[in-house]
Specification:
By secondary structure, the chain is an all-alpha fold. It folds into two domains: 94 residues; 68 residues, no CATH class. The chain has ten helices and no strands. Helix 4 packs antiparallel against helix 5 and helix 9 crosses helix 10. The two termini are 48 Å apart.
């Protein structure tokens, strides 16, 4: 599962929405019954939103500032004039840039994986193996004997399952028992056993 990246354009998105709302509110002023103070607040919200959008554009990485939509957006951020056309064009260029950026974000593939619950027997076995590793065992047979001495549950794996125990399983099928132990040992990233004499 691919995790969606954090939205690196969150500030830009918010600034564009703020400018769009401020422009729409200013355009509706003639139809609204507002006090002088409220009218001033609505009118001042457009230049404020323009400044915030300009600052958000300036904080973009250089590669994004080279994008033609961002360059056009910055050109139409006239903070002193703030005409309806400037607002409309700034919002349009900003939304075009975000649409381009969103097209390159990888989408989640497939269903999310279910969290696998570990068998509690293996948790106890792994804990015992870590303790045994501290005593520096010399052979795999010594490790299996130590596990038997600690009365840790028998792993639900072959050859131990059918032989009903670690040592009986080791005697029945030593290569399979060694393979199981090697796999657990490696998974826990424990120190390797000393090598035996060369034949």
């Amino acid at each position: 599962m691919i995790m969606p990246p954090l939205d690196q354009y969150a500030e830009l998105r918010k600034s564009i929405v703020d400018l769009k709302v401020a422009g729409e509110n200013r355009d509706r002023l003639p139809t609204l019954e507002l006090s002088g103070r409220e009218i001033t607040r609505v009118q001042e919200s457009v230049p404020t939103a323009m400044r915030q959008l300009r600052d958000a554009c300036i904080r973009l990485p250089a590669t994004d500032r080279d994008n033609s939509n961002i360059r056009d957006l910055i050109n139409h951020l006239n903070v002193t004039k703030c005409s309806p056309d400037d607002v409309h064009l700034a919002v349009t260029y900003g939304e075009a840039f975000l649409a381009e950026a969103d097209a390159h974000v990888p989408k989640e593939i497939g269903k999310p994986k279910k969290r696998v619950r570990r068998n509690p027997k293996y948790e106890r076995i792994d804990k015992a193996l870590q303790e045994i590793a501290e005593s520096r065992p010399r052979t795999q047979e010594e490790i299996l004997l130590s596990l038997d001495g600690r009365r840790v549950a028998t792993p639900p794996a072959e050859p131990f399952l059918t032989a009903r125990g670690r040592m009986p399983g080791f005697r029945r099928d030593a290569p399979a028992a060694r393979a199981w132990l090697s796999k657990r040992w490696a998974k826990l990233n424990l120190l390797s056993l000393p090598r035996g004499p060369k034949k």
